[in-house]
Design a protein that fits this description.
Elements: H1 5-14, E1 18-22, E2 25-29, H2 30-47, E3 55-59, H3 64-75, E4 79-82, H4 89-99, E5 101-106, H5 108-117, E6 123-125, H6 130-135, E7 153-156, E8 166-169
Parallel strand pairs: 3-4, 3-5, 5-6
Antiparallel strand pairs: 1-2, 7-8
């Protein structure tokens, strides 16, 4: 089962209920969050040409866009690689390369350091930019089917005794 099916079901049964708050301000309903995730998934699969199982790294602080990008990746049948936003961009570059992440989602406050570190991947998505707004205009896609053993997350350990190690979760 695709992890994004949780959001599909919530949107179907509670579509008009608030799903995400930003501070105390209601931001998105479950229906809106599902629509945004489906559109971003369409961008990832259609516009960027990602295939099932490709990796999407998230290097962002605690922000609602993190949630929609995470669900978008799962919706598209992709693997989420969350990266601690407190890491140095050079550590990020190593993780992105080791994980073979095709796309890096980075918050605006971290984008300059990422560019300086030479992080290499097919594309970068930054919430709040014109490119991100355009990605949200792409036609939504259906939630991709996944098997129970398919990789959903790829977490990296702290690497205190050496390089971080990828921990895979289905």
């Amino acid at each position: 089962m695709n992890v994004a099916q949780w959001l599909v079901r919530a949107a179907r049964t509670h579509g008009d209920r608030v799903a995400v708050l930003h501070g105390e301000q209601p931001l998105w309903t479950y229906g809106t969050l599902a629509d945004r995730a489906a559109r971003l998934a369409g961008h990832l699969r259609g516009e960027l040409g990602l295939a099932q199982g490709d990796r999407v790294a998230l290097f962002m602080g605690n922000h609602p866009s993190y949630l929609e990008l995470m669900y978008a990746a799962w919706w598209a049948g992709l693997v989420v690689v969350p990266v601690n936003a407190k890491l140095h961009p050079k550590e990020l570059a190593w993780i992105v390369g080791h994980a073979q992440a095709e796309v890096l989602c980075v918050s605006d406050d971290l984008a300059a350091g990422v560019a300086d570190a030479g992080v290499a991947c097919r594309a970068t998505l930054t919430p709040g930019t014109d490119g991100y707004a355009q990605a949200l205009q792409v036609a939504p896609i259906d939630c991709m089917p996944r098997d129970g053993d398919d990789l959903a997350w790829l977490f990296y350990t702290s690497g205190t005794t050496g390089r971080p190690k990828g921990v895979m979760l289905s």
